[in-house]
């Protein structure tokens, strides 16, 4: 975690655009059938393991990542640093009003945090997208957090980061909902035993379709290891 945070800070100091991806098994499985997402993940400046399954898979395949870093934890650590350093932050995504609620909640926790703009994630027209691009360009944030869902957030950031020139851009999934109080994270003890995914399933049964990718992910990892050993 400390190493990842140091890397993010170095990106801000560098000033050039950097794409950061928090990969979980669901994203990895989507990438297997999505060439563009695969290429984006391969080109990303930093990919962290947001899921114990990715850490496990890396050990099986032979290129073990050091630890699991949930995207929301990575983002919160970066926001704390941003508050102390005076870095500007832009929040993009979530349902209408959620990014504003998230910004208000974050400011209560981090009074010195400079959130220079928010925009919801349900934009569809070219006019709305252009408005977003112009707003981000005008505000010149050091950090752009996008909560647009996988793979939309990764594809949107990859497509526009070169134009926006934001030093650190991260897709953060449902983090805005948590900060806004719409959703809750699992209790700490549940997180420690790596069952946060099960907690989310109990609270949001509609996620069961998304979790069907997990056994496929396990089989894909095992098959990959088998091929390496041949």
Task: Walk me through the structure.
This protein is α/β, with parallel strands linked by helices and 230 residues long. It is 58% helix and 13% strand. It is built from 13 helices and six strands. The chain has helices spanning 2-14, 25-32, 35-43, 52-61, 71-85, 98-109, 126-139, 152-164, 175-180, 188-192, 196-203, 208-211, 213-229, and strands at residues 19-23, 46-49, 88-93, 114-119, 143-147, 168-171. A six-stranded parallel sheet has the order 2-1-6-5-3-4, sandwiched between helices. Helix 1 crosses helix 5 (71-85) and helix 2 packs across helix 3. The radius of gyration is 18 Å and the shape is globular.
> Are there runs of 5+ residues with pLDDT below 50, and where?
215-230
Helix content: 55-70%
Strand fraction band?
5-15%
CATH domain class name: Alpha Beta
Principal-axis shape? globular
Order of helices and strands: HEHHEHHEHEHEHEHHHHH
The tally of domains stands at 1
Radius of gyration: 18 Å
The neighbouring-strand order within the major sheet is 2-1-6-5-3-4
CATH topology call: Rossmann fold
Largest sheet: 6 strands, parallel
What is the correct CATH architecture? Answer: 3-Layer(aba) Sandwich
* Mean pLDDT, all residues: 84
- Number of helical elements: 13
Please state the structural category: alpha/beta
End-to-end gap = 35 Å
Compile the SSE list and pairings.
Elements: H1 2-14, E1 19-23, H2 25-32, H3 35-43, E2 46-49, H4 52-61, H5 71-85, E3 88-93, H6 98-109, E4 114-119, H7 126-139, E5 143-147, H8 152-164, E6 168-171, H9 175-180, H10 188-192, H11 196-203, H12 208-211, H13 213-229
Parallel strand pairs: 1-2, 1-6, 3-4, 3-5, 5-6
Helix pairs in contact: 1-5, 2-3, 2-13, 4-13
């Amino acid at each position: 975690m400390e190493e990842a945070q140091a890397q993010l800070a170095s990106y801000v100091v560098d000033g050039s655009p950097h794409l950061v991806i928090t990969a979980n098994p669901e994203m990895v499985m989507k990438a297997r059938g999505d060439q563009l997402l695969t290429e984006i993940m391969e080109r990303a400046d930093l990919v962290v393991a947001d899921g114990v399954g990715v850490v496990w898979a890396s050990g099986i395949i032979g290129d073990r990542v050091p630890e699991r870093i949930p995207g929301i934890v990575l983002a919160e650590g970066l926001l704390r640093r941003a508050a102390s350093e005076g870095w500007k932050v832009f929040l993009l995504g979530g349902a209408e009003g959620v990014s504003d609620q998230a910004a208000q909640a974050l400011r209560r926790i981090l009074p010195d945090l400079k959130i220079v703009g928010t925009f919801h994630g349900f934009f569809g027209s070219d006019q709305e997208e252009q408005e977003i691009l112009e707003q981000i360009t005008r505000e010149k944030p050091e950090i752009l957090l996008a909560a647009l869902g996988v793979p939309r957030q990764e594809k949107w950031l990859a497509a526009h980061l070169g134009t926006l020139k934001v030093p650190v851009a991260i897709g953060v999934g449902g983090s805005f909902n948590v900060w806004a109080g719409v959703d809750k994270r699992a209790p700490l003890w549940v997180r420690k035993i790596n069952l946060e995914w099960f907690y989310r399933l109990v609270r949001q049964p509609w996620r069961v379709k998304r979790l069907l990718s997990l056994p496929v992910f396990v089989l894909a990892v095992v098959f990959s290891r088998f091929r390496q050993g041949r």
